[in-house]
Amino acid sequence: MRVAAPSKLIVDPDRLARRRAFAFLGTAAMASALVGLLFVMIWKNYVEGLEPEYFREQGINWGKEFQRRIRSQTNRFLASAQPFEVENWRENLDRSFLHYFDAEFRRNPTLRPRQIALLFKKGNGPFQTAAPIGKGLDREPPGRSFRHDQDSGLDVAVLSGSELVEVVVDGPVDKVGPEIGDSLRFHLVLEFRPFHLVTGRGTTYAALLVIVYLAVIYLLFIFVFRLGRRQMKLALSAKEKSIRLKAISSVAEGIAHEVRNPLNAISLNVQYLEKLADKTGHTPQPGDYQRIYRELGKLRKVIDNFVNFAKSRDLAITRWSMGDAVSACLQDLQARATEEGVTINRDDSGDLELAGDRPKITQVLTNLLENAIDALDQANEKTIDLELSGSHDLVCLAIRNHGATPDDEVMKNMFDPYFTTRSASLGLGLTLAKTVIESHGGRIQATAAPGGGLLVTITLPKEF
């Protein structure tokens, strides 16, 4: 026998289906997680994008409120002050202003900004800041950062920081007495917590919620998938029992047929000997008994095959290597393969150790290899490709002969009891092989090989 490496033959449909299902679930979960996290990021960026305009609106609203209060307080001062106080309105208004807002802030702490100050000017000179309420102004925003509001006449600048958002409002105090006119402005500095700090915890919770939700969905998918597989196994088990009962029924019918012919032959031989003895006094010769023994041998063979079929599920489980079993089978068949000019190409890969009934599996392998050799009787290319492959949970064996491709009827019925294309066979070999393989939780399949011939694939789990 010559050992070579054939093209890859083994494909496990169950394993491929499991891989595809888990790949789909993993891809769906990852895509969903990315979409969820992308949504959270977009929402966060959207909220942060609202900050400048939102805080500018807040600054305008606060500026309008303080503009109204300063105007009201200034008019009240002008209405109640003495003439000499009005003449020195800069100093007196400043004291009145500070007194009023100190009291106002104590009464309503929610209105307290970081700083509020009046700005005075003399004639056409620049505005000067009087004593402010609150902390001093840390930094003046650049002029270009102010935006003018046409409705209120306020200039607003929003300065974003890592911890606080600073809103600076600068505007005139209009609608006051002519003594003051446009010589009075106010300067307001507000502080807000930025959205990304306020919503940061919520964003984190949202991201965690998305991840937990996707994990639950993923686990639910796995649960449904495994539940479906369990239901499928139960359905397959019920179907297998039904097939087994049908097979037993077919075997029983075949036994009845196979037993009837030898019994008829034995009965005819005995009757013939009786009649011959009565008429001629003939004494039975050894050849007469040999015919009866041959028919009894046929009966014995039928009974032995049925007993083997009935005991096919009585398994003695041990750990062994499929590679060693195949080597033993090839060694037993070497003489016949050499005599008939058959070349067997073998290729092993992976871990081939498994748990099972080695004698029964070995018998199955022997039957399949003998069938493969028989199929090459009239073939031009007398070659058998044999491939062994082991993974973390499966051992697969593929046997391909390069003979003629069986017709559809043979492909459909080859595993049925007593179906055979050879006169010397009882037709239980492949039925017994299928029963043994399925008893181990495995699968045996026969398909037409590409380019001609028959491909028989056996898949067995490593753990019984």
Secondary-structure map with pairings?
Layout: H1 13-80, H2 83-87, H3 89-107, E1 115-120, E2 128-129, E3 133-134, E4 147-148, E5 155-160, E6 165-172, E7 184-192, H4 195-198, H5 200-280, H6 286-310, E8 318-321, H7 322-339, E9 343-349, E10 353-356, H8 358-375, E11 383-390, E12 394-401, H9 408-413, H10 429-439, E13 443-448, E14 454-461
Give structural attributes.
single chain; 14 strands; 464 residues; 5-stranded mixed sheet; Beta-Lactamase; disordered N terminus
How would you describe this structure to a colleague?
It is built from 10 helices and 14 strands. The strands form 3 sheets. Strands 1, 2, 3, 4, 5, 6 and 7 form a 7-stranded antiparallel sheet that branches. The protein has a 5-stranded mixed sheet with strand order 9-11-12-14-13. 55% of the residues lie in helices and 17% in strands. Residues 1-12 have low confidence and may be disordered. Strand 5 and strand 6 (165-172) form a beta hairpin. It is of the alpha+beta class. Helix 5 packs antiparallel against helix 6 (286-310). It starts with 12 loop residues before the first helix and ends with a strand. The protein folds into 2 domains: 15-198, Beta-Lactamase; 314-464, Histidine kinase-like ATPase, C-terminal domain (Heat Shock Protein 90).
